[in-house]
Amino acid sequence: MKVLLIALGFLTMSAAAQGQSTLPERLKAVQGDPVVLKAALDAGRRTTFFCANCHGEEGISKAPEVPNLAGQNPAYLLEQIRKFSVGERKDQFMQGLIKVLNDDERVQVALFYASLPVAPTRADPALAAHGKVLFDKLCLRCHGERAHGAELYPRIASQNVVYLQASIRRYRDRTGVRNNQLMSIATGGLKDDEIVAIASYLSQLP
Ligand code: HEC
Ligand code: HEC
After folding, report:
1. Which of 114, 138, 155 is the last residue of a domain?
2. What is the pLDDT of residue 10?
3. How far is the CA of 63 from the centre of ligand 1 (A)?
C-alpha cells in the first residue's frame, strides 16, 4: 500500500512538471524558485520585445490609451491575458496578438512586467486630494490602502491617467468591453469629474 501511494505521488508530481497544473499554479511555482524565476524574467524580457512598441521597454506605456504594465500584480496580468485570449475582454489588437503566446510565455511575460519599477506622474494637488476622498470611500476595500491591489485585484496606483479614466468609465457605463459586476457597482454612481479626480489621485500615487 505504502509503495503504491509513493508511486501515485510520483506520478502526480511528474504530471505537474509536464505542465498539467493550471497557469496560476505554475506562476506561483516559478515565483517560489529563485533560479527558475531569474530565467523566466530573462525570457520575459525577450518575449516582450514586440509589446515594448506600445507598453514601453520597461512597462511604462508610450501612448495615453495604453496601460502601464510595470509593477502590476502578476496573477492579474495572467488573468487579463487569459481574458483577451478567450474574448472575455475586448480589444481587437490585443485579442489577436495574445493568442501567439504559449503558456510558458504567458507566465514569463506576467512575471517580467510585475518585476519592473512603477513611474508615478504629477497631478494637480487639489484634484488628487478630492480623488483620495472618493477612492478611500469607494475603492480602497478591494484595491487596498495604497491602491497596490493583490492577486486578481489590479494595482491602479501609478497607472496612466488617460487609461484610468477610460477604464473606469467603461465599467460604469457597462460597455461590454470588460465585464465585472463588482466594478460596475463600485463605479455606478461616479460623475465624470469625479472619475477625473480619482484618476489624478491614482496616477501620482507611488
Ligand atoms: C499596438 C499596441 C500594443 C501592443 C504592441 C501590445 N499591447 Fe497590450 N495593450 C494595448 C492596449 C491599447 C491595451 C488596453 C486595452 C483596453 O483598453 O482594454 C493593452 C492592454 C494590455 C494588458 C491589460 C493590462 C491591464 O492593466 O489590464 C496586458 C496584460 C497587455 N496589454 C499585454 C501585452 C503583451 C504581453 C504584449 C506583447 C505580446 C502587448 N500587450 C502588446 C496595446 C498594445
Ligand atoms: C468589490 C471590489 C472592487 C471595488 C470596490 C473596486 N474595484 Fe476596481 N477592480 C476590481 C477587480 C476584481 C478588477 C479586475 C476586473 C476585471 O478583470 O475586469 C478591477 C479593475 C479595476 C480597474 C482596471 C485596472 C486595469 O489595469 O485595467 C480600474 C481602473 C479600477 N478597478 C478602478 C477602481 C476604482 C476607481 C474603484 C472605486 C470607485 C474601484 N475600482 C472599486 C475590484 C474592485
Report:
1. 114
2. 45
3. 11
